[in-house]
Amino acid sequence: MQANAPLRGLYEQGFLHLPKQNENTLQEILTALGEVIQITDVTPKPDSRGLITSTRGLDFHTDHHKAKFIVWYCYKQCNIGGETLLLDAFEIYKKLCQPYQNELQKIELFEHKVFPDDYEKYPLVSIDSNGNTKFYYSFWLVRSQDKQNPALRAFQQLIREAEPVKLKLQPTDILIVDNHRIFHARTPIEGNQDRWLKRFWLSEK
């Protein structure tokens, strides 16, 4: 399989679901996309305090800002729940008036220190050197002084009203998202809770 061909869809819609792929294809995709900066086994732990490793649902968010792409490879999937939900943040952002768009660019969110040079905060909306709009968002990382900001509340309301793409990954499925554009969420992990995804963070080439 030539990894670059199917990846065209990723750049158009911001995410790509590739069912029934082997690990050789996974490695080709990782090489094509960028540099792997973190690998995590995402498995539920019923007593976990951390949201990611809990069985609870996760609301819409992005991961660490240094991850341009997130790739998940599914090894096991629970029999009930565990669906992945996706929203295009840029399409939501475009619905806001210009003053609200400008206001969101002033808001910084807390960010967990993962890498040595992290500043522990990052803007919700930023514009890169190529003029692309980038998003970093998790509602639980909004600083207290920003929670009542009218622009942020309007943005969050649009997120709640949006119709997400809903996927349930099956073993050997690959899911790729542009972490600077696509918000992802997860429904609660229920039933046998036997779920195992491997998550790759990739920086841009």
TrEMBL record:
Family annotation (Pfam families): TauD
Native source species: Raineya orbicola
Name of the protein: Taurine catabolism dioxygenase TauD, TfdA family
Keywords per UniProt: Antibiotic biosynthesis, Dioxygenase, Oxidoreductase
TauD/TfdA-like domain location: 11-201
Alphabetical list of InterPro entries matching this protein: AlphaKG_dependent_hydroxylases, TauD-like_sf, TauD/TfdA-like
Any GO molecular function: 2-oxoglutarate-dependent dioxygenase activity
GO process annotations (BP): antibiotic biosynthetic process
Co-factor(s): Fe(2+)
